[in-house]
Amino acid sequence: MLALWNSILKHYSLGASPQDSIFLFKFLRSLSNTMSFDSFTYSYLIKACANMKWPGAGNGLHCLSTKAGFGCHVHVQTALVNMYVDCGCLVDAQNVFEKMPKKNLVTWNVLITGFIKWGEIEFARAIFEVMPEKNVISWTGLIDGYTRMNRFDEALFSFRQMAVHEGIKPTEVTLLAIFPSIWNTGCLLFCQVVHAYGEKSGLNSMDIRVMNCLVDAYARCGSIESAFRVFEDIDDMRKNLVSWTSIISGFAMHGMAVEASGFYEKMENKGLKPNEITFLSMLSACSHGGLVEEGLDFYGKMVDFYRISPGIKHYGTLIDMLGRAGRLEEAERIALSIPNEIGNNNAVVWRTLLGACSFHGDVERGERVTRRIVEMEREYGGDYVLMSNIFCGAGRFEDSERVRRLMDEQNALKVRGIVTLV
Protein backbone atom coordinates (compact mmCIF):
# COMPACT_ATOMS: atom_id res chain seq x y z
CA MET A 1 0.00 0.00 0.00
CA LEU A 2 2.86 2.38 0.84
CA ALA A 3 4.28 1.92 -2.66
CA LEU A 4 1.01 3.27 -4.11
CA TRP A 5 1.04 6.31 -1.81
CA ASN A 6 4.69 6.93 -2.63
CA SER A 7 3.87 6.86 -6.33
CA ILE A 8 1.20 9.52 -5.80
CA LEU A 9 3.53 11.61 -3.60
CA LYS A 10 6.22 11.44 -6.28
CA HIS A 11 3.74 12.56 -8.93
CA TYR A 12 2.67 15.55 -6.84
CA SER A 13 6.19 16.52 -5.75
CA LEU A 14 7.45 16.71 -9.34
CA GLY A 15 4.27 18.23 -10.78
CA ALA A 16 2.82 21.71 -11.05
CA SER A 17 1.39 21.64 -7.50
CA PRO A 18 4.07 20.11 -5.25
CA GLN A 19 2.28 21.42 -2.16
CA ASP A 20 -0.35 18.72 -2.74
CA SER A 21 2.21 16.11 -1.70
CA ILE A 22 2.55 17.84 1.69
CA PHE A 23 -1.23 17.98 2.12
CA LEU A 24 -1.52 14.28 1.24
CA PHE A 25 1.25 13.40 3.70
CA LYS A 26 -0.58 15.28 6.49
CA PHE A 27 -3.79 13.46 5.58
CA LEU A 28 -2.07 10.07 5.70
CA ARG A 29 -0.58 10.84 9.11
CA SER A 30 -4.02 11.87 10.40
CA LEU A 31 -5.48 8.51 9.35
CA SER A 32 -3.19 6.48 11.54
CA ASN A 33 -0.51 7.26 14.08
CA THR A 34 1.04 3.87 13.46
CA MET A 35 1.50 4.26 9.71
CA SER A 36 5.22 4.21 8.87
CA PHE A 37 6.93 5.83 5.90
CA ASP A 38 10.14 4.89 4.11
CA SER A 39 13.09 6.76 2.58
CA PHE A 40 11.23 7.27 -0.70
CA THR A 41 8.38 9.03 1.11
CA TYR A 42 10.67 11.53 2.80
CA SER A 43 12.82 12.06 -0.32
CA TYR A 44 9.75 12.95 -2.42
CA LEU A 45 8.36 15.27 0.26
CA ILE A 46 11.70 17.03 0.73
CA LYS A 47 11.94 17.45 -3.05
CA ALA A 48 8.49 19.09 -2.99
CA CYS A 49 9.73 21.59 -0.39
CA ALA A 50 12.76 22.34 -2.57
CA ASN A 51 10.53 22.98 -5.59
CA MET A 52 8.27 25.29 -3.57
CA LYS A 53 11.19 27.01 -1.79
CA TRP A 54 9.63 26.11 1.58
CA PRO A 55 12.61 25.76 3.96
CA GLY A 56 10.30 25.82 7.01
CA ALA A 57 8.36 22.76 5.86
CA GLY A 58 11.63 21.19 4.75
CA ASN A 59 13.09 21.68 8.21
CA GLY A 60 10.02 20.00 9.70
CA LEU A 61 10.54 17.01 7.42
CA HIS A 62 14.21 17.02 8.40
CA CYS A 63 13.16 16.50 12.02
CA LEU A 64 10.51 13.88 11.17
CA SER A 65 12.86 11.88 8.94
CA THR A 66 15.55 11.90 11.65
CA LYS A 67 13.07 10.65 14.27
CA ALA A 68 11.97 7.96 11.81
CA GLY A 69 15.55 6.67 11.65
CA PHE A 70 16.73 8.21 8.38
CA GLY A 71 19.32 10.57 9.91
CA CYS A 72 22.12 8.58 8.26
CA HIS A 73 20.29 7.53 5.09
CA VAL A 74 22.36 8.85 2.18
CA HIS A 75 19.43 9.46 -0.19
CA VAL A 76 17.26 11.27 2.36
CA GLN A 77 20.21 13.35 3.59
CA THR A 78 21.19 14.22 0.02
CA ALA A 79 17.61 15.35 -0.62
CA LEU A 80 17.90 17.59 2.46
CA VAL A 81 21.18 19.11 1.23
CA ASN A 82 19.53 19.80 -2.12
CA MET A 83 16.45 21.33 -0.45
CA TYR A 84 18.49 23.65 1.76
CA VAL A 85 20.70 24.91 -1.09
CA ASP A 86 17.69 25.40 -3.35
CA CYS A 87 16.13 27.54 -0.62
CA GLY A 88 19.34 29.52 -0.09
CA CYS A 89 19.99 28.02 3.37
CA LEU A 90 23.65 27.30 2.68
CA VAL A 91 24.75 26.96 6.31
CA ASP A 92 22.03 24.37 6.95
CA ALA A 93 23.02 22.52 3.79
CA GLN A 94 26.65 22.42 4.85
CA ASN A 95 25.72 21.26 8.36
CA VAL A 96 23.71 18.33 6.98
CA PHE A 97 26.53 17.50 4.57
CA GLU A 98 29.23 17.53 7.26
CA LYS A 99 27.21 15.30 9.60
CA MET A 100 26.61 12.64 6.94
CA PRO A 101 28.68 9.54 7.80
CA LYS A 102 28.44 8.39 4.20
CA LYS A 103 28.27 10.55 1.09
CA ASN A 104 27.96 9.50 -2.52
CA LEU A 105 28.99 11.37 -5.65
CA VAL A 106 25.52 12.86 -6.01
CA THR A 107 25.76 14.38 -2.52
CA TRP A 108 29.04 16.14 -3.35
CA ASN A 109 27.73 17.39 -6.70
CA VAL A 110 24.50 18.69 -5.15
CA LEU A 111 26.42 20.78 -2.61
CA ILE A 112 28.90 22.11 -5.20
CA THR A 113 26.24 23.10 -7.73
CA GLY A 114 24.14 24.57 -4.92
CA PHE A 115 26.94 26.86 -3.74
CA ILE A 116 27.66 27.84 -7.34
CA LYS A 117 24.01 28.70 -7.90
CA TRP A 118 24.23 31.28 -5.11
CA GLY A 119 27.52 32.74 -6.36
CA GLU A 120 29.71 31.10 -3.72
CA ILE A 121 32.26 29.89 -6.24
CA GLU A 122 35.21 29.88 -3.82
CA PHE A 123 33.37 27.64 -1.34
CA ALA A 124 32.32 25.40 -4.22
CA ARG A 125 35.92 25.18 -5.42
CA ALA A 126 37.13 24.30 -1.91
CA ILE A 127 34.58 21.48 -1.68
CA PHE A 128 35.49 20.35 -5.19
CA GLU A 129 39.18 20.11 -4.29
CA VAL A 130 38.56 17.68 -1.41
CA MET A 131 36.16 15.43 -3.31
CA PRO A 132 37.43 11.86 -3.17
CA GLU A 133 36.18 11.26 -6.70
CA LYS A 134 35.21 13.71 -9.43
CA ASN A 135 33.07 12.94 -12.46
CA VAL A 136 31.99 14.96 -15.47
CA ILE A 137 29.02 16.38 -13.54
CA SER A 138 31.38 17.77 -10.88
CA TRP A 139 33.60 19.41 -13.49
CA THR A 140 30.65 20.71 -15.49
CA GLY A 141 29.20 22.34 -12.37
CA LEU A 142 32.51 24.09 -11.66
CA ILE A 143 32.93 25.22 -15.27
CA ASP A 144 29.38 26.54 -15.35
CA GLY A 145 30.01 28.39 -12.08
CA TYR A 146 33.09 30.16 -13.40
CA THR A 147 31.21 31.09 -16.56
CA ARG A 148 28.26 32.50 -14.59
CA MET A 149 30.67 34.58 -12.50
CA ASN A 150 32.32 35.95 -15.67
CA ARG A 151 35.58 34.22 -14.74
CA PHE A 152 36.03 32.95 -18.26
CA ASP A 153 39.75 32.15 -18.19
CA GLU A 154 39.26 29.95 -15.12
CA ALA A 155 36.38 28.18 -16.86
CA LEU A 156 38.59 27.43 -19.86
CA PHE A 157 41.44 26.32 -17.60
CA SER A 158 39.10 23.95 -15.74
CA PHE A 159 37.79 22.53 -19.02
CA ARG A 160 41.36 21.88 -20.19
CA GLN A 161 42.26 20.31 -16.85
CA MET A 162 39.23 18.03 -17.01
CA ALA A 163 39.64 16.91 -20.62
CA VAL A 164 43.43 16.80 -20.95
CA HIS A 165 44.88 16.13 -17.49
CA GLU A 166 42.06 14.06 -15.99
CA GLY A 167 41.02 12.42 -19.24
CA ILE A 168 37.32 12.92 -18.54
CA LYS A 169 35.20 13.10 -21.68
CA PRO A 170 32.98 16.21 -21.76
CA THR A 171 29.27 15.74 -22.27
CA GLU A 172 27.11 17.96 -24.42
CA VAL A 173 26.03 19.75 -21.22
CA THR A 174 29.71 20.50 -20.51
CA LEU A 175 30.15 21.91 -23.99
CA LEU A 176 27.09 24.12 -23.62
CA ALA A 177 28.52 25.39 -20.31
CA ILE A 178 31.91 26.31 -21.82
CA PHE A 179 30.65 28.17 -24.91
CA PRO A 180 29.96 31.52 -23.16
CA SER A 181 33.58 31.54 -21.96
CA ILE A 182 34.78 30.85 -25.49
CA TRP A 183 32.66 33.72 -26.84
CA ASN A 184 33.80 36.19 -24.22
CA THR A 185 37.51 35.41 -24.55
CA GLY A 186 37.42 35.06 -28.34
CA CYS A 187 39.46 31.87 -27.99
CA LEU A 188 39.49 30.35 -31.47
CA LEU A 189 41.63 27.44 -30.25
CA PHE A 190 38.82 26.23 -27.98
CA CYS A 191 36.36 26.43 -30.88
CA GLN A 192 38.67 24.12 -32.79
CA VAL A 193 38.98 21.77 -29.80
CA VAL A 194 35.19 21.48 -29.47
CA HIS A 195 34.89 21.09 -33.24
CA ALA A 196 37.47 18.28 -33.26
CA TYR A 197 35.60 16.56 -30.44
CA GLY A 198 32.41 16.85 -32.46
CA GLU A 199 33.98 15.41 -35.59
CA LYS A 200 35.39 12.51 -33.59
CA SER A 201 31.97 11.80 -32.07
CA GLY A 202 30.10 12.38 -35.32
CA LEU A 203 28.80 15.90 -35.83
CA ASN A 204 25.24 14.95 -36.60
CA SER A 205 25.03 12.76 -33.52
CA MET A 206 25.64 15.79 -31.30
CA ASP A 207 22.88 17.88 -29.76
CA ILE A 208 21.81 20.51 -32.29
CA ARG A 209 22.26 23.13 -29.55
CA VAL A 210 25.98 22.35 -29.44
CA MET A 211 26.26 22.67 -33.21
CA ASN A 212 24.41 25.98 -33.20
CA CYS A 213 26.66 27.29 -30.42
CA LEU A 214 29.71 26.20 -32.39
CA VAL A 215 28.54 28.19 -35.42
CA ASP A 216 28.03 31.20 -33.17
CA ALA A 217 31.36 30.70 -31.37
CA TYR A 218 33.40 30.54 -34.57
CA ALA A 219 31.76 33.74 -35.81
CA ARG A 220 32.36 35.55 -32.52
CA CYS A 221 35.98 34.39 -32.47
CA GLY A 222 36.62 35.85 -35.91
CA SER A 223 36.39 32.84 -38.22
CA ILE A 224 33.22 33.23 -40.27
CA GLU A 225 34.61 30.68 -42.75
CA SER A 226 34.70 27.99 -40.05
CA ALA A 227 31.25 29.04 -38.85
CA PHE A 228 29.94 28.58 -42.37
CA ARG A 229 31.58 25.14 -42.70
CA VAL A 230 30.01 23.92 -39.46
CA PHE A 231 26.63 25.26 -40.57
CA GLU A 232 26.96 23.43 -43.89
CA ASP A 233 27.96 20.22 -42.09
CA ILE A 234 24.70 20.18 -40.13
CA ASP A 235 22.18 17.92 -41.82
CA ASP A 236 19.42 19.98 -43.46
CA MET A 237 16.76 18.04 -41.57
CA ARG A 238 18.35 19.05 -38.25
CA LYS A 239 18.80 22.75 -38.95
CA ASN A 240 16.35 24.82 -36.94
CA LEU A 241 15.62 28.52 -36.57
CA VAL A 242 18.54 28.95 -34.16
CA SER A 243 20.92 27.36 -36.71
CA TRP A 244 19.91 29.83 -39.39
CA THR A 245 19.86 32.79 -37.02
CA SER A 246 23.37 31.89 -35.79
CA ILE A 247 24.90 31.98 -39.28
CA ILE A 248 22.94 35.12 -40.21
CA SER A 249 24.17 36.77 -37.01
CA GLY A 250 27.71 35.66 -37.87
CA PHE A 251 27.53 37.30 -41.27
CA ALA A 252 26.17 40.44 -39.58
CA MET A 253 29.12 40.54 -37.14
CA HIS A 254 31.53 40.43 -40.06
CA GLY A 255 29.76 43.13 -42.08
CA MET A 256 28.59 40.63 -44.72
CA ALA A 257 25.16 42.13 -45.23
CA VAL A 258 24.59 40.62 -48.68
CA GLU A 259 25.36 37.11 -47.43
CA ALA A 260 23.15 37.61 -44.38
CA SER A 261 20.28 38.74 -46.59
CA GLY A 262 20.77 35.76 -48.90
CA PHE A 263 20.66 33.27 -46.03
CA TYR A 264 17.61 34.98 -44.58
CA GLU A 265 15.85 34.38 -47.89
CA LYS A 266 16.96 30.73 -47.92
CA MET A 267 15.64 30.32 -44.39
CA GLU A 268 12.23 31.71 -45.33
CA ASN A 269 12.14 29.43 -48.37
CA LYS A 270 12.63 26.49 -45.99
CA GLY A 271 9.38 27.52 -44.31
CA LEU A 272 11.00 28.74 -41.10
CA LYS A 273 9.45 31.76 -39.42
CA PRO A 274 12.02 34.33 -38.24
CA ASN A 275 11.88 35.64 -34.69
CA GLU A 276 12.94 38.90 -33.04
CA ILE A 277 16.58 37.74 -32.78
CA THR A 278 16.71 36.93 -36.50
CA PHE A 279 15.46 40.40 -37.35
CA LEU A 280 17.88 42.03 -34.92
CA SER A 281 20.72 40.25 -36.73
CA MET A 282 19.40 41.42 -40.10
CA LEU A 283 19.09 45.03 -38.91
CA SER A 284 22.65 44.85 -37.57
CA ALA A 285 23.90 43.42 -40.87
CA CYS A 286 22.20 46.17 -42.86
CA SER A 287 23.51 48.82 -40.45
CA HIS A 288 27.14 47.72 -40.80
CA GLY A 289 26.76 47.04 -44.51
CA GLY A 290 25.20 50.41 -45.33
CA LEU A 291 22.03 48.79 -46.71
CA VAL A 292 19.62 51.31 -45.21
CA GLU A 293 16.60 50.73 -47.44
CA GLU A 294 16.95 46.98 -47.08
CA GLY A 295 17.15 47.41 -43.31
CA LEU A 296 13.98 49.50 -43.28
CA ASP A 297 12.28 46.82 -45.38
CA PHE A 298 13.26 44.14 -42.86
CA TYR A 299 11.99 46.30 -40.02
CA GLY A 300 8.69 46.79 -41.83
CA LYS A 301 8.40 43.06 -42.50
CA MET A 302 9.05 42.29 -38.84
CA VAL A 303 6.38 44.68 -37.58
CA ASP A 304 3.74 44.53 -40.30
CA PHE A 305 4.00 40.99 -41.68
CA TYR A 306 5.22 38.91 -38.75
CA ARG A 307 3.57 41.11 -36.11
CA ILE A 308 6.69 41.12 -33.93
CA SER A 309 6.83 44.08 -31.56
CA PRO A 310 10.26 45.75 -31.68
CA GLY A 311 12.33 45.83 -28.51
CA ILE A 312 14.81 48.45 -27.38
CA LYS A 313 17.65 46.68 -29.23
CA HIS A 314 15.72 46.83 -32.51
CA TYR A 315 15.15 50.55 -32.07
CA GLY A 316 18.78 51.10 -31.12
CA THR A 317 20.07 49.22 -34.17
CA LEU A 318 17.63 51.05 -36.45
CA ILE A 319 18.78 54.42 -35.09
CA ASP A 320 22.41 53.35 -35.52
CA MET A 321 21.73 52.35 -39.14
CA LEU A 322 20.05 55.65 -39.98
CA GLY A 323 22.68 57.59 -38.06
CA ARG A 324 25.53 55.99 -39.98
CA ALA A 325 23.80 57.01 -43.22
CA GLY A 326 23.36 60.60 -42.05
CA ARG A 327 19.57 60.33 -41.90
CA LEU A 328 19.47 61.98 -38.51
CA GLU A 329 15.99 63.43 -38.73
CA GLU A 330 14.50 59.97 -39.24
CA ALA A 331 16.70 58.55 -36.49
CA GLU A 332 15.53 61.23 -34.03
CA ARG A 333 11.91 60.67 -34.99
CA ILE A 334 12.26 56.95 -34.26
CA ALA A 335 13.97 57.65 -30.92
CA LEU A 336 11.07 59.90 -29.93
CA SER A 337 8.55 57.24 -30.98
CA ILE A 338 9.90 54.52 -28.67
CA PRO A 339 7.11 53.57 -26.23
CA ASN A 340 7.79 54.44 -22.61
CA GLU A 341 7.14 50.89 -21.46
CA ILE A 342 10.14 49.52 -23.37
CA GLY A 343 12.57 52.37 -22.78
CA ASN A 344 11.85 55.77 -24.31
CA ASN A 345 14.25 57.10 -21.69
CA ASN A 346 16.99 54.61 -22.54
CA ALA A 347 20.19 56.66 -22.49
CA VAL A 348 22.11 54.15 -24.62
CA VAL A 349 19.73 54.68 -27.56
CA TRP A 350 20.06 58.45 -27.32
CA ARG A 351 23.85 58.19 -27.06
CA THR A 352 23.82 56.26 -30.32
CA LEU A 353 22.06 59.22 -31.91
CA LEU A 354 24.45 61.67 -30.24
CA GLY A 355 27.39 59.78 -31.70
CA ALA A 356 25.84 60.11 -35.16
CA CYS A 357 25.30 63.86 -34.58
CA SER A 358 28.98 64.16 -33.67
CA PHE A 359 30.11 62.22 -36.74
CA HIS A 360 27.98 64.31 -39.11
CA GLY A 361 28.50 67.62 -37.30
CA ASP A 362 24.82 68.25 -36.57
CA VAL A 363 25.20 70.81 -33.78
CA GLU A 364 21.57 71.78 -33.25
CA ARG A 365 20.33 68.21 -33.02
CA GLY A 366 23.32 67.25 -30.90
CA GLU A 367 22.39 69.94 -28.35
CA ARG A 368 18.82 68.65 -28.23
CA VAL A 369 19.92 65.07 -27.76
CA THR A 370 22.49 65.99 -25.10
CA ARG A 371 19.85 67.82 -23.07
CA ARG A 372 17.67 64.72 -23.28
CA ILE A 373 20.48 62.45 -22.09
CA VAL A 374 21.54 64.75 -19.26
CA GLU A 375 17.97 64.70 -17.94
CA MET A 376 18.31 60.93 -17.63
CA GLU A 377 21.94 60.50 -16.53
CA ARG A 378 23.55 63.73 -15.45
CA GLU A 379 26.66 62.12 -13.98
CA TYR A 380 28.08 60.55 -17.17
CA GLY A 381 30.90 62.76 -18.48
CA GLY A 382 31.18 61.19 -21.91
CA ASP A 383 28.02 62.97 -23.10
CA TYR A 384 29.45 66.37 -22.20
CA VAL A 385 32.76 65.53 -23.88
CA LEU A 386 31.00 64.46 -27.08
CA MET A 387 28.87 67.61 -27.19
CA SER A 388 31.94 69.74 -26.48
CA ASN A 389 33.67 68.10 -29.43
CA ILE A 390 30.65 68.76 -31.66
CA PHE A 391 30.86 72.47 -30.80
CA CYS A 392 34.60 72.43 -31.35
CA GLY A 393 34.21 70.83 -34.78
CA ALA A 394 31.76 73.57 -35.73
CA GLY A 395 34.21 76.28 -34.62
CA ARG A 396 32.10 77.24 -31.59
CA PHE A 397 34.97 77.15 -29.12
CA GLU A 398 33.28 79.25 -26.43
CA ASP A 399 30.33 76.85 -26.37
CA SER A 400 32.77 73.94 -26.25
CA GLU A 401 34.48 75.41 -23.20
CA ARG A 402 31.11 76.19 -21.59
CA VAL A 403 30.04 72.54 -21.84
CA ARG A 404 33.31 71.40 -20.27
CA ARG A 405 32.88 73.81 -17.37
CA LEU A 406 29.35 72.48 -16.91
CA MET A 407 30.75 68.95 -16.80
CA ASP A 408 33.14 69.96 -14.01
CA GLU A 409 30.35 71.69 -12.09
CA GLN A 410 28.19 68.56 -12.30
CA ASN A 411 31.13 66.39 -11.20
CA ALA A 412 30.42 64.22 -14.21
CA LEU A 413 32.60 61.18 -14.62
CA LYS A 414 34.89 60.99 -17.63
CA VAL A 415 35.23 57.39 -18.72
CA ARG A 416 38.60 56.08 -19.88
CA GLY A 417 38.74 55.54 -23.61
CA ILE A 418 36.86 58.70 -24.61
CA VAL A 419 39.20 60.76 -26.77
CA THR A 420 38.90 64.52 -26.33
CA LEU A 421 39.84 66.87 -29.12
CA VAL A 422 40.39 70.12 -27.18
Automatic annotation (TrEMBL):
Pfam families: E_motif, PPR, PPR_2. PPR repeats lie at residues 104-138, 207-237, 240-274. InterPro entries: E_motif, PPR_At4g14850-like_plant, PPR_rpt, TPR-like_helical_dom_sf. Transmembrane segments: none annotated. It comes from the Eukaryota. GO terms for biological process: RNA modification. Keywords: Repeat. One of its GO terms (molecular function) is RNA binding. The keyword Repeat applies. This is Pentatricopeptide repeat-containing protein -mitochondrial. It comes from Striga hermonthica. The lineage of its organism: Eukaryota, Viridiplantae, Streptophyta, Embryophyta, Tracheophyta.
